[in-house]
């Protein structure tokens, strides 16, 4: 294609669904977006979008083109990340992604790192999806479990996080406290809404209680924790966090099968850069003091 700008514009329209949204992201006038789409459709001889009152929806040829555009955009992002990471100074942007629920542990680590290296700007990302290191979406990923990784990723053990089964004192006063799984009948539970989850404790709970006993389900870790604290039911919490709350009652103590091994994942292209190595060294040293959760 002679004009990558037109393809990039079409990609943003498809991603956001509106001309105005694409114009804002690209930093151009909405008329420029429309002109790019019209020119691209004329050049290809097909309609790439269905126009309707709510915005633009890609047609089948549009989806084919945009799949290629998305891959190209991601590869450019990967290239930029690699180039930026090749410097020999500990400065610039550092993107760290992590599983949800351990910000209490990681924010002090990041704070200490930035006190040492004041020229580093940190972006800390958590999401349900797994960020692609091979596409340059992050420099360092902190993940749980022992799942498969891309062949170009470097994986190192970090720590283990313990989880226990807890209830609010208000729940115990109202419904009592089961002494074991044998007394779970008649109790209410808080659990992830995901049918498939990497968390071993949520898998255990789903396999142990009846579906109708799950009184509250959510996809957000913070929402699950608040539900337990507010007495909606019995649920899992990280032991290090629950230990700080006198209004929580331990229903069942931690078990090895509920533990989540944490691992550090980096891409081989960025693993040896000075910035990433400096952060990994700082992170591993800090993790030695995580006595309350390992």
Compact description:
The chain is an alpha/beta fold and 294 residues long. The chain has helices at 4-16, 19-26, 30-44, 60-84, 103-116, 169-175, 200-208, 221-229, 239-242, 268-271, 274-287, and strands at residues 49-52, 55-58, 92-98, 120-126, 140-144, 153-161, 163-168, 189-192, 214-218, 235-238, 248-252, 260-267. The longest helix has 25 residues, at 60-84.
What does it look like?
With 294 residues, the chain is an alpha/beta fold. It folds into three domains: 4-84, Winged helix-like DNA-binding domain superfamily/Winged helix DNA-binding domain (Arc Repressor Mutant, subunit A, Orthogonal Bundle); 92-160 and 261-287, D-Maltodextrin-Binding Protein, domain 2 (3-Layer(aba) Sandwich), CATH 3.40.190; 163-258, D-Maltodextrin-Binding Protein, domain 2, CATH 3.40.190.10. The protein contains eleven helices and twelve strands. The chain has helices at 4-16, 19-26, 30-44, 60-84, 103-116, 169-175, 200-208, 221-229, 239-242, 268-271, 274-287; strands spanning 49-52, 55-58, 92-98, 120-126, 140-144, 153-161, 163-168, 189-192, 214-218, 235-238, 248-252, 260-267. The chain has a five-stranded mixed sheet with strand order 4-3-5-12-6. Helix 1 packs across helix 2, helix 1 (4-16) packs across helix 4 (60-84) and helix 2 crosses helix 3. The radius of gyration is 24 Å and the shape is globular. The N and C termini lie far apart (54 Å).
């Amino acid at each position: 294609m002679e004009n990558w700008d037109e393809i990039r514009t079409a990609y943003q329209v498809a991603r956001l669904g509106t001309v105005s949204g694409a114009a804002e992201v690209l930093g151009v006038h909405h008329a420029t977006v429309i002109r790019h789409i019209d020119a691209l459709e004329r050049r290809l001889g097909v309609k790439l979008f269905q126009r309707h009152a709510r915005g633009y929806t890609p047609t089948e040829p549009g989806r084919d083109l945009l799949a290629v555009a998305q891959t190209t955009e991601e590869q450019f992002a990967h290239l930029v990340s690699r180039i930026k990471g090749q410097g020999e100074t500990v400065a610039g942007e550092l993107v760290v992604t992590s599983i949800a629920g351990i910000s209490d542990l990681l924010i002090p680590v990041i704070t200490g790192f930035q006190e040492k290296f004041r020229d580093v700007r940190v972006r800390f990302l958590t999401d349900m999806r797994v960020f692609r290191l091979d596409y340059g979406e992050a420099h360092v990923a902190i993940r749980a479990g022992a799942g498969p990784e891309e062949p170009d990723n470097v994986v190192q053990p970090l720590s283990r996080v313990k989880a226990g089964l807890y209830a609010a004192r208000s729940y115990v006063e109202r419904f009592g406290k089961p002494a074991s799984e044998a007394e779970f009948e008649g109790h209410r539970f808080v659990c992830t809404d995901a049918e498939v989850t990497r968390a071993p404790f949520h898998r255990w709970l789903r396999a142990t209680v009846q579906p109708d006993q799950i009184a509250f389900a959510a996809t957000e870790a913070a929402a699950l924790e608040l539900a337990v604290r507010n007495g909606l039911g019995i649920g899992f919490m990280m032991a290090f966090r629950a230990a700080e709350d006198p209004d929580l009652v331990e229903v069942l103590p931690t078990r090895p099968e509920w533990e989540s091994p944490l691992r550090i994942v980096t891409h081989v292209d960025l693993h040896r850069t000075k910035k990433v190595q400096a952060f990994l060294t700082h992170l591993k040293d800090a993790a030695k003091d995580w006595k309350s959760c390992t």
